[in-house]
Design goal:
Layout: H1 7-14, E1 20-22, E2 28-31, H2 33-39, H3 43-46, H4 51-55, H5 63-72
């Protein structure tokens, strides 16, 4: 039986914008293929690294993410067992 991709997975896979998901310590947990292409890197080289190491001057404050995770509920954001990038 073949499963149908969910809408969020399709959006993640085909979004032309570089997307990443960070944990509360600002470590990169997920990246999409667009971000990998922009940074000329593969997902394996990005996952687990600090966002500031990759984004440099564009590093993000962790305060907005903490607020968003409390509001949305961490478990509802993206399943932790899912990685949508080629390794």
């Amino acid at each position: 039986m073949e499963s149908t991709p969910t809408l969020w997975k399709l959006l993640w896979d085909y979004d032309p914008n570089g997307l990443l998901v960070l944990d509360e310590q600002m470590n990169i947990k997920l990246v999409n293929q667009s971000l990998c292409r922009m940074l000329k890197s593969d997902a394996g080289a990005l996952l687990g690294r600090k966002a500031a190491d990759i984004l440099g001057m564009f590093a993000i404050s962790s305060a907005p993410m903490r607020s968003a995770s409390k509001f949305l509920g961490r478990s509802n954001l993206i399943p932790s067992s899912t990685c949508m990038c080629a390794r």
